[in-house]
Amino acid sequence: MQFLDQLPSRPKFEARSATIAAIATAIAVAIASVVVAGLESPQVGLVDASPVYLVAVVLVGSRFGMWAGIAAAIASFLTYDLLFTEPRFSLVVADPREWLDLVLFLFLAVVVGRLSALGLERSAEASRRAAESTALFAISRQLAIAPDLSAAAADIAARLVRETGLARVWIAVEGTGRSTILADSDPGPPIPNSPFTTSLVRTAGDLPARWVRSHVPKTAGTGAGPADSRLEILRIRMEADGVAIGSVWASRPRSASQPSRETARLLALAADQLALAIRRDELRREATDAEIARQGEALRSALLDAVSHDLRTPLASIRATAGALVDPEMPLSDDAARSAGLAIDQEAERLDRLVRAVLDLGRIEAGGLRPDLEPLDLRDVVEPAVDRWRAALGERPVTVELADDLPPVRADAVLLDTIVGNLIENAARYAPPPAPVAISAESSDGRIQLVVDDGGPGVPGAALGHLFDKFYRVDQRGAGPRRGLGIGLAIVRGLAEGMGGAVEAQHSPLGGLRVTVALPIAARPPGESAPHDAPDAAARPDAAVRDTAPSAPHG
After folding, report:
1. Contact at 8 Å (CB) between 156 and 139?
2. How would you list the strands of the sheet with 502-507, edge to edge?
3. Angular region, 66: left φ>0, alpha ψ -120 to 50, beta rest
């Protein structure tokens, strides 16, 4: 059964403070009386030295507050009336004019004491506000710069202990029916336990929050061990957007005074900032999960599209052609049978390329790419690749321009051949005849820049940054039914980066697309120098520039 009651104040602390203030008042009034007696003595001859008591009133009021100052004023009034006003040692005043002086003195003493105490209170309030603002700024900064929320919460818990004087602070996050300790200022000992929990109850408007003691069932925010009656457990709930996030818990001795308004305000504001930070992290995780799910769905759709079109199309061609070969009612000549077999071989080769491309992409993403880097003559890789893709290039004029003095490139022969083949296939797919294709290379800044240009329609400027994304395909008119999987350029980037290179897409001077692959230059063996005696490319165009004449499509 739960019950609530207003937390009582701590009379011990207040009584001790009142005792100290009373002693200080008595001492100040006594000293002022000694000074007044000396000033009004026959040797000095001062008629009225009562203003000396104002000094005592100011000192007491500025040190112990308004009520102490008023008490000092009343004590000064009575002391001066008893000791220095005729008849002495009596509250009776013989001269009525003395009453006016005494009343004015009392009024002035009360006003001075009040003003002194007010200045003290404002100064103390300003200091408390400054300390509170500094602590809140430190908490906000920690939440902003900490590498993760757990580290920030641990620093915040330690700071709350320093700023509030509490024995221990821990932060518990609630979720899925259970509570988890996010941070603890003293993580070694077990969480303390108490039969009573004192909660901070927020109020609407500018009304101060109040502490309310409750007897509630055991929660994860409190310890599981036996209750310690010497401790008091404080709880400050964390909420954001009407959602319960958890609680900031604290322990302190039961003999301590009631938490001040500044302590309650600092704990409440720290709990609010922690709640917002935890809620923000939750929303960020949800957004990340949603984005991952969205990208996964996009990849699944792309793979489904590839399987349903790019893989099924060659399979359908193979089955149709093979069916014609085995159909006894459709006898084929030798030339027709060879053509059918060639068609089956071409479609099977296309299937093989698609499967190898998907496998290559999987190796790249899994980090299983292990290139065998060696010095390679770029001409030995490019020219065989062009010859191999000659049939796919069809009537497109192809220009290969590689300088004789081009240094060797440091790359893997198989991977580099795949890069060149994918770039030529991309040009053949998206640059319809008679669009030209040009392959060139140059050395710059310790790298070989392999450039493949085509004279096709190109791509929009907004698409250049996405060409190397997997399954990304530019929608173009006239691309035909076989648009590809959209992974050829993604493989180019993965293989190039795996060999320490980089790729870039730009608009080509030929009017279409330019893809530049930058790979590191291989170090020459000791004693071998660059071929400076090689003929200039302009003097030997047949060695520097290779023009391949169009040939009839194969098959």
Report:
1. yes
2. 502-507, 513-520, 447-454, 437-444, 398-401, 545-548
3. alpha
